[in-house]
Design a protein that fits this description.
Largest interface: A-B, 85 and 85 residues
Number of strands of chain A: 5
Structural class of chain A: alpha+beta
Strand content of chain A: 15-25%
Shape of chain A: globular
Radius of gyration of chain A: 18 Å
Largest sheet of chain A: 2 strands, antiparallel
Oligomer: homodimer
Number of helices of chain A: 5
Order of helices and strands of chain A: HHHHEEHEEE
Distance between the termini of chain A: 29 Å
DNA sequence: AGTGTGAGTTCCTTGAAGGAACCCCAATTG
DNA sequence: CAATTGGGGTTCCTTCAAGGAACTCACACT
């Protein structure tokens, strides 16, 4: 329900949750990524209430993650990812990766990812942009940044 | 509120949301990561309702992401990350990274990350585990996996 | 004029989040 | 040994969000 406002916290995780932390939001982005870009398509694919879908789409557009644009002379609209939204898909890929590793069970992962660059079916790993080595939660020290609360 | 059950969907993102998709859950994991491992500490740090914190902690323990263990002869408990939970922090790092890039504003990021391996303050990037090159949402083709719905 | 369709709105019901007060247990203190 | 303290929760009530079905609107096609 999240009545508490996460957007005002001095924490990038909380602020990100303010954008995609509500129920359904990540799945809506997944759908747009997968090519379900219209209201009816997303509603049918997810089985989400139309009221909630309207709210979520408006919120994602307000936050600059999606863009609403007409595709017909009739009042018809589709939702497309902005650059900000495309980069947000990294979070979804990390989620998908973890779900594949820990929740897929006997049946195996529901979706596979073929990397265009090498042509292989592969997974993602977090790497340091500086040295290129693996960089996970245990490999870093947290320091106060310039935008830290006083 | 999420009365819809995401856990049963043939989608690793939805299944991951079934574990950490409820309000507060990612922030609770962040706190445990940052060293706030006891009920009172987390409650005070987040300002979350005690009732909801109890529910969330129980849920995370049930899903094997946290472990509840005594640290005193009195009935005192702390919550620690399991291996499954540690790997889930990748998702939080991706969120923090995106928030730093798009939501930090003038003040700059609230937290910086120093990579132990190279000693530099750095960011994370998604790379292909196979070839090591950058691998984002636009760099992959989605294929049906063995666990796909029929 | 009548029909169809995409894209929403309205309205009612159910149930989750907020929040304050209360409870339990074991160790310490007087 | 009674009283106190403090961590770790429950209980209960209020408020507001999610589910879901029905309804509306704007434009194009027949």
């Amino acid at each position: 329900m999240q009545r508490t406002d996460f957007g005002g916290m001095a924490c990038s995780i909380a602020r990100t949750l303010d954008v995609i932390g509500e129920p359904w939001s990540p799945l809506i982005l997944r759908d747009v990524w997968a090519g379900f870009t219209r209201f009816e398509q997303i509603q049918a694919d997810l089985g989400i209430s139309r009221k909630v879908l309207t709210e979520r789409l408006n919120h994602l557009v307000e936050r600059g993650v999606l863009e609403r644009r007409p595709y017909d002379r009739r009042p018809r609209y589709e939702y497309v990812l902005t650059e900000k939204g495309i980069q947000l898909l990294d979070v979804l890929m990390a989620m998908a990766n973890w779900g594949d590793n820990w929740l897929a069970g006997e049946a195996g992962p529901p979706v596979l990812y073929r990397h265009h660059a090498c042509g292989e079916i592969s997974k993602v790993d977090l790497r340091c942009t500086h040295c290129g080595e693996s960089m996970h939660a245990g490999d870093v020290e947290l320091l106060q940044g310039p935008g830290a609360a006083v």
